[in-house]
Structure to design on (566 residues):
């Protein structure tokens, strides 16, 4: 029997009320589960507005220890109820440190662990270095009941190293929760196609399906462009959302077929790790 | 004054007569130079047919020591005459070893050095592991009179590590001579879009223009699909050839503008080499 997996990406706008935001994700998760989705990806930091637009200490109050985070305590039971895997993006506090983190909940409600965003952006409208300490967990893959998945967080999606590392750890699908939109200081720059091309590149170079979920909405003039998608292991779009639609998109992949494709291409046979020293800081 | 660079990719069919093949490249190089091109990229192994379709010892006779290779001795003077940089793909013999190699000739005719293809494919129609020892030079960038360029060879183009390594060495443009076409044992598989997507991914993830030159023609049923292209540092096509056209395509990039874009994106600021140990064989 084919080892198929149905994936879904969620897309919505989020506001100041964390409870309402969680309810939005719950509603869409139920819809996607009804459609047969087994792994359901909400956007990055759906707990609130994308607060990194500015540098304001008030937002530190919305960070919680990861196991007690309201997003986790509310949605882990939902994962169990629906029998779906949920990679949940959260703003995490650990003692005096704050991280942009992700908790993966398995289809039986078990919390599989924590990943902390490795690559932290910084620039007008995306002032993440003010809030988040760079992640110290290293890249993570999660052995869920429906397959081994790798999850990066937003900015991680631009780094081929992150995708490759998760693949070398055995990931069968890559997921990227995201919050990306317009550039306040450069209104003519639309990054949507670059955003898609970078991850499509990971799909092709690693022969792996890639799913990305982005928010929508106008947050004080910063317009998030949605465009959530899933590409197959050749980079073809198999789910594709508009820039402003709320809802979910789902697609089914055959993990055994992808595995055969990957072996057939031979990229992992032909890698030359002994020549890659530059990538880890060597010369 | 803007530090602009005009690039060209050459596209043609090649047959058994090495002298005729060199003449074809010379003709197209002159045309591209007349159009203002400063770096002109011919396809991979244009010295003859793509002989790796089969495993046949007769082809070893077409390898030469790199400085004495007929392609190099014929075209280095042309580079000088026209004042153009030529990255030249050759079948190299070094004592008992054979390599899929590249010699870069500067715009004054100086031979800058040798790169040996790091990643060697193998499969139906592309039996390169029979002929070529995996390259031992490591990745190379070339300080030419018109900018620092990185050149990979064909299969190298599928590996994000190769692109990243050349970027970390200061490459300002990436070039990939190629020989790719139909799959003899899988006629329904058309790799053209994957081929472009992988390199477009490198362009976006490294904020760098990428140029690829491929051959055309039907070689005993193996159809090479041309489609040579240049993308800018955001992955937009700025030169784009058909699947069957002979000729060249050229585009101009502003290296200072690209440099500013790259710094602005911050990918090289935010890399985490200490987390990339997996890529070099660590755990």
């Amino acid at each position: 029997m084919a080892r198929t997996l149905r994936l879904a990406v969620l897309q919505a706008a989020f506001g100041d009320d964390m409870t309402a935001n969680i309810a939005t994700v719950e509603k869409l998760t139920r819809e996607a589960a009804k459609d047969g989705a087994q792994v359901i990806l909400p956007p990055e930091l759906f707990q609130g507005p994308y607060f990194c637009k500015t540098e304001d200490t008030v937002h530190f109050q919305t960070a919680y220890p990861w196991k007690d985070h309201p997003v986790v305590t509310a949605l882990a039971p939902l994962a169990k109820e629906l029998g779906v895997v949920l990679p949940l993006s959260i703003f995490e506090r650990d003692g005096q440190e704050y991280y942009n983190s992700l908790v993966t909940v398995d289809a039986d409600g078990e919390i599989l662990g924590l990943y902390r965003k490795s690559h932290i952006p910084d620039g007008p409208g995306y002032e993440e270095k003010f809030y988040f300490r760079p992640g110290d967990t290293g890249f993570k893959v999660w052995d869920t009941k429906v397959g081994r998945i790798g999850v990066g967080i937003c900015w991680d999606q631009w780094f081929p190293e992150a995708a490759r590392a998760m693949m070398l750890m055995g990931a069968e699908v890559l997921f990227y929760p995201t919050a990306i939109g317009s550039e306040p200081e450069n209104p003519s720059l639309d990054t949507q196609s670059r955003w898609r091309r970078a991850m499509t590149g990971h799909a092709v170079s690693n022969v792996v399906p890639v799913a990305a979920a982005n928010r929508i909405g106008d947050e004080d003039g910063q317009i998030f462009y949605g465009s959530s998608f899933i590409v197959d292991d050749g980079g073809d779009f198999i789910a594709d959302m508009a820039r402003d639609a709320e809802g979910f998109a789902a697609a089914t992949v055959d993990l055994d077929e992808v595995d055969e494709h990957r072996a057939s291409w031979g990229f992992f046979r032909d890698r030359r790790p002994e020549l890659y020293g530059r990538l880890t800081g060597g010369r």
In short: Chain A touches chain B through 49 residues (CB under 8 Å). The longest strand of chain A covers residues 86-94. The mean pLDDT of chain A is 97.
